[in-house]
Amino acid sequence: MGFPPVSTEIIRIRKLGLEKAKGLTGAITWREKDYLKGETVEAGVIILPTRGCSWAHKGGCSMCGYVYDSLDSSQETVLKNFRKAFEKLEGVRYLKIFNSGSFFDEGEISSETREEILAAVDSAGSIERLQVESRPEFVTESALKHSTKFSKELEVGIGLETASDKIREVSINKGFTFEDFKIAVERCKKYGVKIKAYLLIKPPFLSEKLAIEDAIASAEEAARLGVDRISFNPMNVQRFTLVERLFLNKEYSPPWLWSVVEILKRVRETVDVPVICKPTAAGKARGASNCRQCSDDVARAIEMFSATQQVSYLNSLDCSCKEEWRLKLMYEEVTF
User: Using the 8-state DSSP alphabet, how is residue 246 labeled?
Assistant: First the structure.
């Protein structure tokens, strides 16, 4: 089967979305449970508005609408927003900063602003690890050298999405290869920086069954490269994206939560690093879901597994809709 020409349509949709976007006026923050160094810990999250992902401004990924939360903020504003949010997270052991793009992209966060942020985190006695995000092209020698004065553990999350270059290019329009990811991993290891690989569950144009197998194979491949943590992101349908257009045309549906459970259970058997999943919009039409009766319980079990790595939270799950999910896997037409 031939593949649809998605890149031009992604650019068209992105342009329309950016024209309508209002962005965030300040940072958003919250606390959550996460898994660190063998135990459940209190983690803090900061969503820090910047100019936004440079790749997204060129069209970007087929499923990502985070650029619409961004603002063309001055570095002074970025730093002010960070400090205000950081004050609310006293006592956390694991801090995650998401700027809806790349922490090491000078167009989003300058080296001076980055240095100020790292210094502030370094002075916080409770924090053991800081996680930031970046595309691999910004994980450069100079960026990592700049971070070597940081005394806490530094973790870089990269949206690998899949180990398949074909799926990453055609379904996601990610704009980099598996080899690019591999080089970024090697650079991080050279400087003692930890790597979190983000993997997408059910990119567009994949059947449910193929999406499960791709997610599992991708996790195993990422683990072989030596990543320190794997985070699965079940698709959630975001506004002004190609995935939303497919969704509204009834040409795409988010994954079942049963698929997420299957992936986590099987990956936990073969992969020896923490495996995390926190489904966004779980149980809703635009997120991973089962039936109304079990979606909330299954989503909570997935979050408990992520915070503890105890597969028992997943093994005890059951519902009558599970048989419908099994039949879907058995009979659906493979579309990729």
Answer: H
The arithmetic mean of pLDDT across residues 213-234, rounded, is 98
Which residues, 6+ apart, have CB-to-CB distance to 123 below 8 Å? none
Specify the pLDDT at position 2.
Answer: 41
Q: In whole angstroms, what is the distance from residue 116 CA to residue 121 CA?
A: 9
The whole-angstrom distance between residue 197's C-alpha and the CA centroid of its chain comes to: 8
**Residue 274 to residues 2, 128, 266, 305, 309, Cα–Cα distance (Å):** 37, 17, 13, 10, 7
Cα–Cα distance for residue pair 49/23, rounded to 1 Å: 8
User: Contact 172/9 with Cβ under 8 angstroms?
Assistant: no
Handedness of CA 282, 217, 270, 333 (dihedral sign): positive
**Amino acid at position 51, single letter:** R
Token pair for residue 269?
A: 């058997």
The pTM for the full model equals 0.95
pLDDT tens readout for residues 106-146: 999 999 999 999 999 999 999 999 999 999 999 999 999 98
Question: Across residues 53-81, what is the average pLDDT?
Answer: 92
What distance separates the 2 farthest-apart alpha carbons in the chain?
Answer: 56
**DSSP at 2:** P
Contacting residues for 14 by C-beta, under 8 A, at least 6 apart? 56, 57, 59, 60, 67, 240
233 beta partners? 200
Write out the two tokens for 255: 């994954």
Closest C-alpha among 276, 281, 282 to residue 257: 282
